[in-house]
Every structure is written in structure tokens, then in C-alpha cells.
């Protein structure tokens, strides 16, 4: 487990500035490790200190929380507070936060377990493909209803041993060799696949009719003719399901959601308001009161079983440019004891985002255009000018932070991207090119600012 200082360093590879926020989340993550080393009795008394981030859009609030979860492979969920309504109004209920977090945890655990059985699943799928290519019919599996009634499936008819050719190699060996060499990828085979009908969750729950009756109703299956390449993907998925213990996945996923889960509640300032609010915003305070027990610690029923929220780390964020933190109900304020303020991005910050972070915007553009044979490069002066233009536009219009770099870059690269047709060529973006493409935009913004 990384130390708090190492976590800050790792976050700095992707996020520019905001040292106070990085330190706060790093300490929160390190405290989780410290708590895990305590005795069970002491561990039960230590709860996470939830964090409230205050700052304008586009300065890195969401990215900090997302990167934090990736560092430790923790279940992560981002929700927007404005999507929820209090009980009695049409909209999502706050319990769905926990249900969605468990689903994210299920996916995370399953992906990790799939990595451990990939080779075995591929080997089993290969054998089934060879059977199909040799003309052997797959054994029909009993449906759930047949299992319930005790109906035994008919045994597969014995097939004659494949005849050997002059070289002594069996037909199966020949097919296997051709399959491994990739010569049969476009051959057609017929396999039985399960039909996945779309399901609609019942109101107020995360369960559907199919979830409740699934163990009783037989699964619908149908025969499909597919290429070997497509059939292999389906067969590998089926073999992976057989090799993974579903109960173990659920148990581990619930444990991780409860102990390691991170929930990022964005736009919490949009549900802050005075108690006298009326009209379409009448439920804002009600949403806060519904969120309160989730953040305080409660037990939420999901289709996988009860899930406790006592040790989930909640990170709330909002711009708070209209309302203030004091507009939140006092009980909810108390559940976010760690408060950090994120600062607007300066021109220097925007310059560092362009080149000093991993997978920077400039590197993304270079990789994309390299597909069409364009070798793109940026001079230092060009990067300085791009950062200046983005900062000017943010200053004269709505400040959207680092997202402004994307809009500026798309305008800058529009002609180059449009003309790229696969012909190899070198393109240097220098300061004069940036001024030529973006100069009129800056002048228009400056003129608009000067008009009263």
C-alpha cells in the first residue's frame, strides 16, 4: 500500500495543481490501510472522514476521485445529486447509489477473477470449436425447469472414431492444427446461445421479473450460425462463467463495496437551498435528508443482499458559486468534516496540462493523427499560446477550467484533421499557426468584454 506522499505523487502524474485536495484524499486512502491493520474491535469504531470539495468546474474534482479509486482498484461510483428526488417525487431514490456501487464492485471483482481463468476458458472453448468443426453435435444442457423436474438429458450419441489418413494423423488433429494456425477463422459453425431479453427494474428496487423468476423459468436458447471467430468469443464467455464461482464473486464484491467503496457525489451545491424553497426545487432539502442516512451509515437492501454504508468513503463536490456550504442542512454538513477548496486554473496550470501530464491532449492528438500518417509536433511557443488563448476565453466567458483546452484544441486542429487522408507528412504547430487559427476568436472575446 502506498504512503500518502506516494499517492499525491501518483495523482500528480494526471492532475495539475490542487495540492490541498490531493493531500486530503491521500490521507483518507492511507487511513483505510491503517484501519485494516487494527483489531476487529478497534476497526469497527473507525469510520472514514468524508470529504467536501469546493471549486469551479473543470479544475479536477472528479478526476481526483476517479484516479484515487484506480490506484487501489476500489469500487467507484460517480453520481449527480440533481438526479435524485425525495420519496414521493418522480425520480431516482438515493438507495440506488448503493445498488449501483455494488454493481460496479461486481464488475470489478468479476474482471479480476476472469483474468485468472482466461487460459483455461480459452482451452475449453478451443476443444468445443474442434468438436463443432469435426461435425460432433454439442451436448444439450438441461434447462432450469428440467433440473427442477428431475428430467435427465438424453446422452449424446456416440460418434465413430475418426479415420486416420495416410500420414497417421486423425481428422481431429488436422482440424486442431488448422484452427491453431488461424486458417478456419471464417468457417461457419452452428452453436446454441442464450437469449438475453431486456429487463426493466421494478419501481424502487434493482430487481426485475427475470431476476426473481430466473432460477425457476427455463432460459431461452436458440441456434445461431456464426463464424469461428465470433463463436470463439461466445464460447470463451460461456466457459468463463462455468469456471467462476458466482457466489464467491458476490461475497467478495459486497465486502469490497462496504470496506473499499468510494462514492463521488457531484453537484451537491445544486440541492443546497433554504427551507422556504418552493416550486420545482421543493424537494432539494428532502434529497439532502434522504442522502443523510446513506452517508451516516445504514444498511441498504440490494438483490445481492444487505450492504452496509458505514465505511464507504463519500466525496462530495460542488462549485458553490450561487449557494454556500452553510445552505446544506447542518446534519449533512457534519458528515463531511474534511473540506478543501480547489482553485481556478491559471495560465501556467493550463500550460502544464498540455504537456506535463500523462496522456496529455497534445499526445492524444499526435496518436490520433498518426493513424492517418500525420507526424504532428508542437513547439513550446505554440503550447504557451494555446494556454494563453484558453485562459483568455475562460476569463472572458464562462470558466470551464481544463475543458476549455479541448474546445480550443479542436478549433486549432480542425483543418489538419479534415485534410488527413493517409498520406504521410510532417506538421509543425508553431506560435504563428496558433495565432492565425485562434487570433480571431480571442479578438472577438476581447471586444465582447469591452462592450457594456
Tag the structure with descriptive keywords.
single chain, 452 residues, alpha/beta, five-stranded parallel beta sheet, two-stranded antiparallel ribbon, 17 helices, flat
Strand content: 5-15%
Give the number of DSSP strands.
Answer: 11
Q: Estimate percent helicity.
A: 40-55%
The low-confidence parts are 156-164, 275-280
Outline of the structure:
This protein is of the alpha/beta class and 452 residues long. Helices cover 50% and strands 12% of the residues.
Give your account of this protein's structure:
This protein has 452 residues and is an alpha/beta fold. 50% of the residues lie in helices and 12% in strands. The protein has helices at 4-12, 19-36, 40-45, 61-71, 95-133, 144-149, 171-180, 209-213, 228-243, 246-260, 284-296, 330-334, 347-355, 361-370, 380-396, 403-419, 431-450, and strands spanning 51-54, 76-80, 188-194, 221-227, 262-266, 299-302, 305-308, 313-318, 338-341, 374-378, 425-429. The longest helix is centred in the first third of the chain and has 39 residues, at 95-133. The protein is flat. Mean pLDDT is 82; it is low at 156-164 and 275-280.
Topology:
Elements: H1 4-12, H2 19-36, H3 40-45, E1 51-54, H4 61-71, E2 76-80, H5 95-133, H6 144-149, H7 171-180, E3 188-194, H8 209-213, E4 221-227, H9 228-243, H10 246-260, E5 262-266, H11 284-296, E6 299-302, E7 305-308, E8 313-318, H12 330-334, E9 338-341, H13 347-355, H14 361-370, E10 374-378, H15 380-396, H16 403-419, E11 425-429, H17 431-450
